[in-house]
Amino acid sequence: MFRRSLLIALLALVLLPAPRASAQGTSRPGNLLVRMPWGRLEIVLGRLRLTRCRLGHESQISANVPERRIEETLAFSAKTAESARLRYEYSDAQQQLRVEIDQAAQVAVHRLPRGESRLALVRLQQPLRGPLTLVVGDGQNAREFTADGLWQLMLAEPDVCREHLNPILQSWRSDWMLEEHSQQIEQALLLLARSQRASDRAKLSALVEQLGDPQFSRRQGADRQLREMGQPVVSFLDRLDERTLNAEQRSRIRQIKQAFRVDDGDTPERVASWLSEDRSVWLSLLERKSEATRTTAAKQLGTILGQTVAFDPAADDTERHQQVLRLRADLGLERPVLVGDAGGNRRR
């Protein structure tokens, strides 16, 4: 088995072309990741994930170009789908990039600029559960951004992601068009809200209540209706406080969410359905330049909250900014900004 894996790794290395330079003469990372034959990187429900892994496989390869000061290594192993691991390192005269993936979906990315590079220091942390964190810059210029997933982050901070995060991620998959997909997700969300096809929260709440009904037939009926509503129910179910649910409700909800689990890459339509109930997304859209977009976002946020929100889409920039800040504070969705040490020692 070891000899076979070694032969496969050597063959892959021979077939991999040497790292290329861009049209401007600046080398780019990602060549080994793009051509990795043992697994595939996907964005699944807004989370980076290793999928389609070759189980039982373990390999390490490298592709160095000494005359360009390029060093690139990739290590991969996957005893099971859920234990897949990847270690990737790339360095050239401009940067050092390290990518670590554990348990298929726990991700750490660290890009460190080198020499006279104008690149910013970038750190991305995606835990197995909970919000991901992006830190851009170091020292007094460090900024920290958090979001439940990559799409929420890209909708909330499009300029930051366009400049600092998207180029890193797109070097791993040549067919990812993250900015375009983010824009398509935004348009699909607005269409959902304007056509009133977003999930009926009152109906969803009633069905969740029925999942704990003493009558088996009512529990089964509610379970069936929730499943028939499709992917959008997952966003609603994810935001339920499990402390308010009984054991039957928790069990059925876990099974429903498991039924909608996907391993293939996100599409704009599926992401829009999934995010249609996400308060943070609609808060982000309140800050768009288009008044029509702001109006739709305010109405949808009000629908989700069950009340009219204190936001005037036609107000001037300063007043709208203050209104959004107050809404964020009221909903506990303020944007953290890191100042000082990039490790998080000082905040404002």
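The record above closes out task 2.4. Task 2.5 opens with a second protein, given below.
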Amino acid sequence: MSNVEPFPSGASIALDTVGAHDVFCDWITIYQDHFGGGLPVLNDGYMVRFAADAFTRSVDLATGALRAMFDASKADFTVSQRVQHEGSFDTRLSVRCDGTRVELSGNVGRFGRRDNVFGLPVLETIERANEILAALGLSPFSHNEKNFEQSRTNSFHTSHNAVITRVDLTANYAAGSRQDAFRVLNWMSGQATQRNAGKNPINYGNGITWNEGSKRHYEKLYYKADELGMHVAQEVRDYCEQNGILRYEVSIKSKELARYDLQNMVTWSKVSPEGLRMDNVIFGKFSEVLTRNQVSVTDLGQIPGKLGLIARLYIDGNNPYESQPVGLSTRRRWRAKLLPYGLDIAQPIDVTRIAHRVRIIELQPLAAPDWYQRTAA
């Protein structure tokens, strides 16, 4: 647990998120069937550890195009159940091919880089994955709209298109300092997500998880500087510490991807009427817990009417649902109206987080600074 002290008298926090999100893909699991077969078999074969310069980009003399190249002489092979390709900075991807199906899983944007403070959107991540597949002699992940329309009527994916079975989306927020970042974590440990009312988040000290173990989606918020690893540049480490960077991640699994029709590449290429990429739209559906507390009050008397009475009961350590018999719909309505004040009455009261005084910490969504490099050198 952090040694940062909570607010004096247990004062609560009203989080104010401002600015634009730089949402990127932190993990992808994807496969594609090539029914013609004939692809190199990478199944129950080898684990491959690459030297730092094993993957390079060179000009193809035949076409003049710049493409990824792989030098097999700079690889150390050991027996393994599945081919796992390691980048030059202890990064790893799992790749498998039985001659027909190509599978890839891992943090593609992190591959061969010193850190992953900022990364690539989903489609750009797949493009990067295709460079790696090409260097291994495998066919790329692709999408054909005709095949897609034919497969939509089937209960199983029978087309030639790529199928995404897991995507982790993430964005960084600056709390301003390490101390304020841990105050936010302390506060957020008393907030359930909209989708999991009544379920307590798990607090690990420098991070919080929601919906852990779910087969659909799983969220976490954590202090980024504590998990940068040994290879990160000092400039990046200082940047994370000085800005008090918190990272919010949502891991979206196969069932949830299917719910939003996100198992295919074409949906990820769509843009919302507001001009937002699909990465930002989907991330926003899960990150509402960070956009609460937009209504600041310095006294509970400012909360109007019966809602103020419910808030005072909760602050005093009482269960507002026991003050009078109420149905489930009423409970949900009360909770929804008090969430903007930073009060989640579906959670047990914790006096170390709640008080009548409110302090504002602006969680500013971060864009990558000009000097930051998103791809491997």
